[in-house]
Amino acid sequence: MTGPRRKVLLAGGDGRPALGSARSQQPGDRQPDEACNCPVLDATEWDAVESDWGDIAFLATNVNAIAGVPIGLDRAREALFARAAELGLRVPEDPMLLISEGAFRRRVLLEVEGDGAPTAVVRPGGFAYTRLLEAPWGELKRAAGRFRDEAEARYGKQPDQIFAWYLTCRVCSRARNFETLLVAHYQP
Questions:
Q1: Where are the domains of the chain?
Q2: Model confidence over 63-75: pLDDT tens digits?
Q3: What pTM does this model have?
């Protein structure tokens, strides 16, 4: 990535609760647990926001899933970080780690910066629409369905891909009520 991602707040990003979740605080308002390094996103910068993906880059891998639950995500994350180092790519602070939908296999994308290894880097282009929400166990699939419908209503077509960025770990998930960023990606 050559410069900061351009984020444009869209109409309707007025601090309302994301996708039907009732809460007193917006996701991102809570501070992370001291024992973890999970990212905390500012809802005003991420909820109901459209981002230009013309200059964003990722390294990609795949993980298996059982009934839609990704298996080996921590190992895949570590392998992507190691691969970025091998290729001379910089991993930004709090990089996006996106996981695609899928019942049996899921694509995992790690945000990277730099011009090295052009054949290894995925540059999706287009733009992304994001929603920051709380998705406790069993809620993510329903929330993703509502999000897909919202994106389709906003843009007049289904997103090319839906990704999730799990913003919590085993240490802080309950305290932060399983904060997740959903990403609707539209190809150019």
A1: 1-56+125-188, 57-123
A2: 999 887 889 999 9
A3: 0.81
